[in-house]
Design goal:
The complex is a heterodimer of chains A (737) and B (236).
Chain A: H1 5-20, H2 24-37, E1 50-56, E2 65-71, E3 74-80, H3 93-96, H4 98-103, E4 112-115, E5 118-121, H5 124-140, E6 147-151, H6 157-169, E7 173-176, H7 180-192, E8 196-200, E9 207-213, H8 222-234, E10 238-242, H9 248-251, E11 255-257, H10 264-277, H11 283-289, E12 290-291, H12 293-303, H13 306-313, H14 317-329, E13 333-340, H15 348-360, E14 370-374, H16 388-394, H17 414-423, E15 431-435, H18 439-442, H19 446-455, E16 458-461, H20 468-471, E17 475-476, E18 487-489, E19 499-503, H21 516-527, H22 531-534, H23 540-548, H24 552-558, E20 560-562, H25 571-574, E21 582-583, H26 587-591, E22 609-614, H27 628-632, E23 639-640, E24 643-648, H28 650-655, E25 663-667, E26 672-679, E27 687-691, H29 710-713, E28 730-736
Parallel strand pairs in A: 6-7, 6-15, 9-10, 9-13, 10-11, 12-21, 15-16, 16-17, 22-27, 24-26
Antiparallel strand pairs in A: 1-2, 2-3, 4-5, 4-17, 8-14, 18-19, 19-20, 22-28, 23-24, 24-27, 25-26, 25-28
Chain B: H1 3-20, H2 36-62, E1 63-66, H3 74-80, H4 103-110, H5 118-128, H6 150-156, H7 161-165, E2 177-180, H8 187-190, H9 207-216
Antiparallel strand pairs in B: 1-2
Classes of the chains: A alpha/beta (737), B mainly alpha (236).
Chain lengths: 737, 236
């Protein structure tokens, strides 16, 4: 038999006919259809039991309640907690992105020690033993005061434990990271004599005069302020925004008044001038509950006439008068300040001027007004017994100079720390603890901060992430992230009622991490008496439960405890000044350096532009790095590819021969960065802006290397009254790259 | 000589040969007919081979044979519980269905080894004591694009478990799990019969089988969630 080509064809035809008579083709089509509709690499949430857990978000000081949805043991969504007084079901982009912070790749998974420039994993016992040995040596040498701790808060049990630890150890150097709270708290102290936190009843006011505050860009408690802005609109209220740039808040305001940056304090005083000269102020409040008004009136009328201020601010006299009249004629007007999200303290004189406006209309401690919220007072631990070394150490001056004769009003002065260390032969800080702080990223003049950090022999970071500062530390003792730990949140920034919320673990810790509270207790116990005696708790959760006492059950069940109905102490009892009244002027205020507009650092002939930062809800601030979900949500007028866009007025761009979308070099007296030009009509000519929150060098590939860090380009302008950073921007030049 | 000329020459030679051959009875097939034998034969070979491949070899290639991690005895457990299948495969308080039990349900009885079964010992030592969930292979798992609610079928439709899952509760061991190499799903979805024929309602659980019952029982033809009809009942 001859096998030829025809036979093969015949075989193939037979095969094809046979195949059609089998399930093979039909089954394969079906299977491929199923496969292609369910790509195996597409993540699908595990099936399982859905449960919700109440907790509190600690990613910013907003104090929002969260409701965490889990499927079995996995967190799948973070929602706002309905019924929570601060956010009532609302949640911001960062809050929603918390799952990426939990499961993301930049977590530090176990304690680490830097050996010859590279990280080695070590055990918790070894890490703690190493710190305890160093601390014991310093104490033996009588240098206990060379230990410092930087923390994002000074309220609540964890900062409380740090303070207690440093006190019994013998160091006064507990430092809170700076923000507008520093100024607000000082203003309340200077004028009202109270150590309190500012609360803003935005839900009930009918007019907001904002001196650059990003009401919908992260100022104070972001979600509460969002809801306040919505309530204002629904109630027919008005928002006037004074700001050199058309921010989101300015865009949503009823009137946007671009004023020369740095002159807001003068503008507030000119508004006061109109209110006083036209007698629009609250006669009742000023007559019965205020002191020092005549001196204040004299100063304002003499030095801050609208005509003089108009030249300084660039706002015409009619606008100033209109603002004053609308503000004082509203039923519940509220003046607020602190630029953007309020991440740098600003000038004390600005805050005083704006606070005086609230006082002039008597809108203090009442619904719709600015409320002095009492400090939380639930921490009632037994007094510590200090030995001679501790007492001696506590009597040493603070390294940052806060509270000294030069800076009597400042409680903490982190911005001076780098300078003090860099000016010394040997670092006055021998051991630095970083608890919820990332100063290498968040402080101005990054190069100086890095230089100072490198001079400190032992830097211990408690960061849960490999952030910029942790990457430069000697030891990392990773904290549980907020979804894995207990912690009290003793306030919600800007919320007008005393509130305590509880952060509770919603998942078991994923990695070999420990809560900072536990580590402090263990370190103290390993140090032996008298330190061990001051930390007699078995562990941090026990300490927390004991501390919160009868509020514990409410907190674990509801997630929060609030002093309902509180709207501020009555005027007759609210003021704890010498006169028991609100003081428009007193000896302390008179002793402050006179008002002067804050100037941007830099030589204006060489740096003709003014660079200002802006905040956005789509980027995290402080010590938290933005998760990928946020970075992806950024507009391409902020970040395009890996390039940050610099906003510039078309007129200025024309002068500089810069065109839209082209690369440029942004140079400040401190540093320079490669940027792309974005022509924006909403920015004053001569002013340029970039966002805060970009330009990370650490974390993961989703965040590192994107854009430029404003802080690395900026410098501190020391406020002559307080020592805090009063800078609102820096001089800059922009040239074609 | 051109190619055409060559062809003509060959052709004439062949004719000469034929004319030279002595004339015989037409016992031998005429020219051209002789090739039909091998061609038919090869056609049949092709047909047979492909039928063999499609019906016998293909199903064996398509499915991988896997064993369950533990040989679970449903009969034994069914005797010990009061509430039938729902004792372990229960509805949660929110109405969702728990599916295959988790370790937490087993641990009450099986914290220590109770009997003499090697499988139980394996379960206790390898899973309970190490706090590892048993990676059960689920025969009835549908692809992720399919929405299925047990509550709608069992609570509202009053169906019993056997209709879809078969007499699982009467099994003393767990059958092997045949995973489709393309989709990863169990062979039980398409059915044991590669042609797709079924004898019992639980033999197959493809889309046609769902819609057959939905049409027969005249159930709500619109999605409860979206009120859209047709595909949206199961494909959200």
């Amino acid at each position: 038999m001859k096998v030829d080509r025809r036979c093969f064809l015949s075989f193939a035809i037979g095969g094809a006919a046979g195949t059609a008579l089998t399930p093979l083709p039909w089954k394969l089509i079906d299977d491929f259809a199923i496969w292609s509709q369910n790509w195996p690499w597409t993540p699908v949430p595990e099936k399982g039991e859905t449960t919700y857990a109440k907790s509190t978000c600690t990613l910013c000081p907003g104090g929002c309640g969260i409701n965490v949805r889990r499927v079995d043991d996995r967190v799948v969504k973070i929602e706002g907690l309905a019924g929570h007084p601060v956010n009532d079901g609302g949640v911001c982009l960062l809050g929603q992105s918390g799952t990426q912070l939990l499961y993301g790749p930049s977590r530090v998974q176990t304690p680490k020690k830097k050996v010859n420039g590279s990280w080695r994993n070590i055990s918790w016992d070894d890490a703690i033993a190493e710190i305890v040995a160093k601390l014991s040596d310093l104490r033996a040498e009588g240098r206990s005061h060379s230990v410092a701790c930087i923390s994002d808060s000074d309220r609540g049990t964890v900062p409380g434990l740090w303070n207690r630890f440093l006190t019994v150890y013998g160091s006064p150097n507990f430092i809170r990271t700076p923000s507008i709270q520093d100024n607000y708290e000082l203003v309340l102290y200077l004028t009202q004599g109270v150590r309190a936190m500012p609360g803003f009843d935005v839900l009930n006011c009918d007019y907001i005069l904002s001196f650059g505050s990003g009401l919908i860009e992260g100022w104070q408690s972001p979600v509460y302020m969002f809801q306040g802005k919505s309530a204002l609109v629904q109630n027919g209220g008005q928002l006037d925004q004074i700001e050199p740039r058309l921010s989101k808040t300015a865009a949503k305001s009823d009137r946007w008044i671009p004023a020369n940056p740095g002159t807001e304090g003068a503008l507030a005083r000119a508004i006061a001038h109109v209110i006083i000269s036209e007698e629009l102020y609250s006669q009742d409040f000023v007559a019965r509950f205020a002191a020092g008004f005549d001196e204040f009136k004299k100063l304002i009328l003499e030095e801050f006439s609208p005509s003089a201020v108009s030249k300084m601010t660039g706002v015409d006299e009619d606008s100033i008068a209109a603002l004053a009249r609308e503000f004082s004629r509203a039923h519940k007007p509220l003046a607020i300040c602190g630029r953007g999200a309020g991440r740098t303290p600003g000038s004390l004189q600005d805050f005083i001027a704006v606070h005086m406006l609230n006082a002039l209309v008597g809108n203090l401690n009442r619904p719709g007004g600015l409320v002095a919220v009492p400090e939380p007072d639930y921490i009632d631990w037994p007094d510590v017994e200090m030995d001679a070394i501790a007492s001696k150490g506590m009597q040493q001056p603070r390294i940052d100079g806060a509270g000294s004769t030069k800076y009597p009003h400042a409680r903490y002065l982190l911005d001076r720390l780098a300078e003090v260390i860099n000016d010394s032969q040997e670092s006055p800080v021998q051991v630095l603890f970083l608890s919820n702080a990332n100063p290498v990223y968040s402080m101005a003049d990054t190069a100086a901060v890095i230089k100072a950090l490198d001079k400190i022999p032992l830097v211990v970071s408690f960061s849960s992430y490999m952030d910029e500062t942790a990457a430069r530390a000697d030891l990392i003792l990773p904290n549980h992230i907020y979804l894995e730990r207990y912690e009290d949140v003793p306030f919600a920034r800007g919320f007008p009622q005393p509130i305590i919320s509880l952060t509770q673990p919603v998942v078991a810790p994923l990695y070999n991490t420990r809560s900072v509270g536990d580590v402090i207790i263990q370190m103290a116990q390993n140090m032996g008496d008298p330190m061990a005696a001051a930390f007699a708790w078995d562990d941090y959760p026990t300490c927390l439960e004991e501390t919160l006492g009868d509020k514990w059950d409410t907190l674990t069940e509801e997630g929060f405890w609030v002093e309902a109905g509180f709207s501020g102490t009555n005027w007759s009892e609210a003021f704890e000044t010498d006169s028991s009244k609100f003081e428009f002027s007193n000896n302390d205020i008179k002793a402050l350096p006179a008002y002067k507009p804050v100037l941007a650092p830099g030589d204006d002939s060489f740096y003709p532009l003014m660079l200002i930062p802006f905040d956005t809800m789509r980027l995290a601030g402080g010590y938290i790095g933005s998760p990928p979900f946020m970075v992806k949500a950024l507009e391409d007028t902020v970040l395009k590819g890996n390039d940050v866009l610099v906003e510039i007025n078309p007129a200025t761009a024309k002068e500089l021969e810069l065109s839209d979308g082209k690369y440029a070099t942004l140079t400040t007296p401190i540093s320079s960065a490669r940027v792309k030009v974005y022509l924006f009509d909403g920015i004053m000519p001569g002013v340029i802006a970039i966002p805060r929150g970009l330009g990370h060098t650490a974390y993961d590939k989703f965040l590192a290397g994107k854009g430029a860090n404003y802080n690395a380009l900026s410098a501190v302008v020391e406020d002559p009254a307080t020592g805090w950073d009063a800078a609102w921007g820096i001089r800059a030049k922009l040239s074609r790259a | 000589m051109s190619t055409e000329d060559k062809a003509n020459k060959i052709s004439s030679e062949v004719q000469n040969q034929e004319s030279n051959t002595p004339q015989k009875e037409p016992a031998t097939p005429p020219p051209g007919v002789g090739a039909a034998g091998p061609i038919t034969l090869f056609f049949i070979f092709g047909l047979a081979a492909s039928l063999m491949l499609g019906w016998v070899v293909f199903p064996q290639l398509l499915y991988s044979q896997k064993e369950q991690p533990i040989q679970f005895n449903h009969v034994l457990h069914n005797e010990l519980v009061d509430n039938g299948c729902e004792s372990c495969h229960y509805f949660r308080e929110d109405g969702t269905y728990s599916g295959v039990p988790k370790l937490a349900q087993c641990i009450d009885c099986h914290e220590e080894v109770q009997g003499e079964s090697a499988e139980e010992e394996k379960f206790v030592t390898q899973y309970i004591q190490r706090d590892r969930e048993v990676p059960w292979r689920v025969y009835s798992r549908q692809p992720d694009c399919v929405f299925f609610s047990h509550a709608a079928h069992v609570k509202m439709g009053k169906m019993d478990c056997v209709t879809c899952h078969g007499p699982m509760g009467e099994s003393e061991t767990l059958k092997g799990y045949e995973a489709n190499r393309i989709t990863g799903l169990s062979r039980d979805i398409w059915g044991r019969n590669i042609a797709g024929f079924k004898k019992n309602s639980w033999d197959r659980m493809k889309m046609d089988d769902c819609s057959e019952c939905h049409q027969r029982e005249d159930v709500n033809q619109n999605s409860v969630q979206t009120d859209k009809g047709g595909c949206f009942v199961c494909h959200k």
